[in-house]
Write a structure and sequence with these properties.
Blueprint (H helix, E strand, L loop, with lengths): L1 H20 L2 H7 L8 E11 L13 E2 L2 E9 L4 E4 L3 E3 L2 E2 L6 E11 L4 E9 L6 E8 L13 E9 L6 E10 L15
Antiparallel strand pairs: 1-3, 1-11, 2-6, 3-4, 3-5, 4-7, 5-7, 6-7, 7-8, 8-9, 9-10, 10-11
Bound molecules: 2-acetamido-2-deoxy-beta-D-glucopyranose (NAG) (4 copies).
One 2-acetamido-2-deoxy-beta-D-glucopyranose (NAG) binds next to loops.
Pfam families: DUF3237
Keywords: Signal
Length: 190
Amino acid sequence: MWHSVSTQGWATSMLALATCFSWLPTSIATIPVPVAPKLSFLYTAFVECDPNLMDTSVGPHGIRKSIPIVGGNFSGPHLSGKILDVGADWGLVDPQTNVFSADTRYNFRTDDGADIFLQTAGPKAPDGHLHLRIIFETGSPKYYWLNNVVAIGILTSNLPTNRNISLLRIDAWNFASDWNSTQFMNATSA
Ligand SMILES: *[C@@H]1O[C@H](CO)[C@@H](O)[C@H](O)[C@H]1NC(C)=O
Ligand SMILES: *[C@@H]1O[C@H](CO)[C@@H](O)[C@H](O)[C@H]1NC(C)=O
Ligand SMILES: *[C@@H]1O[C@H](CO)[C@@H](O)[C@H](O)[C@H]1NC(C)=O
Ligand SMILES: *[C@@H]1O[C@H](CO)[C@@H](O)[C@H](O)[C@H]1NC(C)=O
């Protein structure tokens, strides 16, 4: 008797649940696919790198690289300048997939003298390009808006060069609806 009541109770609950959620798939299907955000072109950078300093030992996080970033340049509609010799890519190869992911820190100096610190990270995509998330940091009032953009990049490696360096190209974009100027508290905008 107890068993039969319990089973009936369970069946009733399941029926109630099914009724409750029966609208879900139909409702989701009727929500229009959201419009993809538009991107704004930020810059094209040519990045000069020295050879990897690390061996191929597998460490606790994978196979760590240490690739010095020693120079280069960037240019776009709102910022251009040189890449300083102060950074590196400490990327990792995932030993389970052999997929390399970049993990960089380096510095831009704009033609008008502002310093911008960059952190980029992201994996090699199936087409051989790296897909990067790019984070900017600067105290420059003119470029302060870069602190608040959401940016991505596509990296192409092994560009031809007659110098003894490895030359990469990074094309970068950010959300078109991001900030493009800064309103400072108690001050004029930049
Ligand atoms: C940027 O670097 C690339 C690759 O080295 C070079 O071809 C180009 O002339 C440089 N641009 C500027 C403005 O220096
Ligand atoms: C190129 O650079 C690498 C590493 O810095 C060095 O070992 C090599 O001798 C250089 N090659 C030439 C031709 O200068
Ligand atoms: C800056 O952003 C504003 C507001 O989103 C937009 O109206 C304006 O066209 C943008 N300016 C540039 C140069 O992108
Ligand atoms: C702006 O001015 C107000 C009033 O004087 C002050 O309380 C506030 O700390 C100032 N903010 C900044 C960022 O300087």
